[in-house]
Amino acid sequence: MRIFIAGVACVGKTTVGERLAALLGYRFFNVDSEIERYFNTPLARLQNRCLTAYSFSLKAAEVLKHILSRPDSADCVIALPPSGLLRGYWKVVKTVRDSRIVVLDDTPENILKRITFYDDDSQSIEKTLSDREKRLYLKDIREDITYFRRSYERAHLWVDIAGCGPDDAALKVKDAVAENPSSWRSHASERPDQQLP
C-alpha cells in the first residue's frame, strides 16, 4: 500500500512520515527531496526557473511518477508538498490504487513552532522571529490552511496531531489508516478537478 501524507508546510509531514514508514517497515520518500535529486537542482532554484506554479507542478509530477514506478515503492509512505493534492500532483495521486491519502492537521501556533527556513540552495538557516514576524507568519499559515483545505477534502482521512510528538503522531496515523476501509479510495477520486484551484 502507498500512504500519501499531505498537509501545509511545516505541519510535520516528513518527520511523521519517516516514523510511520519505520513503524510499518515501508520505504519513505519525501517528494521535495526526490525532486532535487531527480533534477540535481535545489528546489527553490528549480521553482524560480519555472514561469508558473502550474509548470513547476508538471515537472514535479514527473518525479512522483518516477517514484511510483520504482519496485521499492510498492509499500511506501510519501510526503507530498502542501500542493500535493492539486494540479499535476493530483493527476498522479488519484490514479494510484491501494493507497491512502492522509492529511495531518495541527494548530497554526504549533506549526509556527516547527517553521524552518532555507536558502535558495536548500541549506537551513537560523532565524529568530520578532513578535511582528510571528504574527505575520501565523497569518500566512492560517491563509495556507484555508487555501489548501478544499483540495485536502480529497483525502481519505484527516489526523489531528495537535499536542502529539512525532512518534505518537505516527502511531495515530497508523491506527487511523488501519481503521479505514479501502472503499474510500473511489470516493476521493470522484471529486472534479475543475472545482479546485
Task: Write a structural description.
The chain is of the alpha/beta class. It has one domain: Rossmann fold (3-Layer(aba) Sandwich). It contains 9 helices and 7 strands; from the N terminus they run E-H-E-H-H-H-E-H-E-H-E-E-H-E-H-H. Strands 2-3-1-4-7 form a 5-stranded parallel beta sheet. Strands 5-6 form a two-stranded antiparallel ribbon. A hairpin with a 5-residue loop joins strand 5 and strand 6. Helix 2 packs across helix 4, helix 4 runs parallel beside helix 5 and helix 6 crosses helix 7. The longest helix is centred in the last third of the chain and has 22 residues.
Instruction: Return the CATH topology.
Output: Rossmann fold
The mean pLDDT is: 89
Which range does the strand content fall in? 5-15%
Under the CATH scheme, which class? Alpha Beta
The shape is globular
Number of strand elements: 7
CATH architecture: 3-Layer(aba) Sandwich
Going across the major beta sheet, what is the strand order?
2-3-1-4-7
Helix content: 40-55%
User: Which structural class should the secondary elements be placed in?
Assistant: alpha/beta
Query: Which segments are poorly predicted (pLDDT under 50) over 5 or more consecutive residues?
Result: 183-197
* Number of H/I helices: 9
Distance between the termini: 28 Å
CATH superfamily: P-loop containing nucleotide triphosphate hydrolases
Largest sheet: 5 strands, parallel
Radius of gyration: 16 Å
Count of the separate structural domains:
1
Helix-strand string: EHEHHHEHEHEEHEHH
